[in-house]
Amino acid sequence: MQRIVSVLLLTIFLAYPVFAEPATQVDTDVSTQLVKGESGILMEASSGEVLYEWNPDKRLPIASVTKTMTMLLIMEALDSGKIHFEDMVTTSENAASMGGSQVFLEVGEQMSVEDMLKAIAVASGNDAAVAMAEHIAGTHETFVEKMNERAAELGCTNTHFINCNGLDETAEHYSSARDVALISRELLRHPKIFDYTTIWMDTLRGGQFGLSNTNKLIRFYKGANGLKTGSTSAAKYCLSATAERDGMQLIAVVLAAPSTAERFQSASALLDYGFANYEVVSSENLYLPLLPIAVRGGTEICVLPKLNDLSFIVKKGNRDKVETSINLPDMVSAPIREGEVLGEVTFTIDGQEVAKREICAATEITRIHPFAMYLRVLTKWLTL
Predict the structure, then answer these.
(1) Domains along the chain?
(2) Rg of the chain over all Cα atoms, to the nearest angstrom
(3) Which of 351, 339, 282, 291 is nearest to 314 (CA)?
């Protein structure tokens, strides 16, 4: 009897198809090691999707790649209006004392914020980084506190800074490939930074001091647009490399490569892998008919829905196969907060879900006063 039951169960099992979990569009389990170093990661900037990783959370010294955070705080200070490109920055004795990569600022020398930023982004000037830190925060130490606060806000769980330039690293100054990618991604939200990170050669001091970009990919890799190199005896050779092709912006981080050549080779291999295998889907690629939704009891009769973030990654060649399914109510009740989730949109390829995004309220709508509601109804009735 037991044998008969087993046969019947086997027959039923074979008669019905077995549905496996849908295959993800992104596969980070790559058999070939793309990174010649202790750690690395490849991230797509708009979505934050990780396309490849190798020991991405290992805490390591990052040398001058530290300046990605320094440049981020500079750009945020510029965008907030706290500082301006034409502001003159005075070099302190502390800033002028920095060794390593520098633009040889002298005590009391003044240079514009724009030129200081150029010195940091192109020549990796340790002295310029400290001068800007003091200009923004008053002291270098206060600026470093802000660096650590900002890292925590970005979700960097394996990062701690003790200076703004990566010089004289100790065991207390470290980051990880993932955290560097997160900081780099945030920096890329300030497109003005590309005006400086894409410079190959330039000058300061009215043409008297030459600059040459430490990131050789800017000249030799198609689409390269940043971001920051770094090397010390402790950190070995590090790089946060960014490049854009066909509307897809990638971030490749390599830490502790054994040589400068292998640093650039690894970053190139990561970027090549990303551009060869993936493409980004954005609002430019899809038509989403998000129509106004009726509002019950509100000061407005309808609310506009919006997508805060649409970008997601698909395997190359699949962008035109994406189908959408929008789930929104016919009516919602006031009050409605700006950004309140109203529904969602699901994206599928060949019936398999590849992404899902929330649809939110574009504006706030308060509850209407009963008397105002009475006037609205009366007006509508009188116009019939």
Answers:
(1) 39-278 (3.40.710.10), 293-367 (2.60.410.10)
(2) 27
(3) 282
- The residue annotated as part of the active site, out of 36, 39, 46, 67, is 67
Told to judge if 325 belongs to the known catalytic residues of this protein, a careful annotator would answer no
The answer on pLDDT for 122 being more than 80 is yes
Lookup result for tokens 């040889």: 104
Marked catalytic residue, from 39, 46, 47, 64? 64
Task: Indicate if 175 belongs to the active site.
Answer: no
The string over 291-309, giving b where at least 16 C-beta atoms fall within 10 Å of a residue's C-beta and e elsewhere, is eebebeebbeeebebebee
Calculate what percentage of the chain has a pLDDT beyond 90: 83
pLDDT band at 23 (very low <50, low <70, confident <90, very high): very low
According to DSSP, the β-strands at 293-296 and 322-327 are unpaired
Residue with tokens 């190798």: 54
Residue 67 annotated in active site: yes
CA–centroid distance for 100 within its chain: 29
Dist. CA 370–CA 372, nearest whole Å = 5
* pLDDT (average), residues 242-264: 97
Mean per-residue pLDDT for 368-374?
A: 70
> Tokens in use for 4?
């008969």
Catalytic residue (one of 124, 240, 266, 311): 124
- Taking residues 312-321, what's their average pLDDT? 93
C-alpha span between 305 and 360 (Å, rounded): 5
* φ, ψ of residue 278 in degrees (nearest 5): -135, 160
- E strand or H helix at 80: helix 67-80
Overall average pLDDT of the 7-32 stretch: 47
| DSSP string over 242-286 | EEEETTEEEEEEEEEESSHHHHHHHHHHHHHHHHHHEEEE-TTT-
Output the pLDDT for position 188: 98
Asked if residues 67 and 166 have their Cβ atoms less than 8 Å apart, the reply is yes
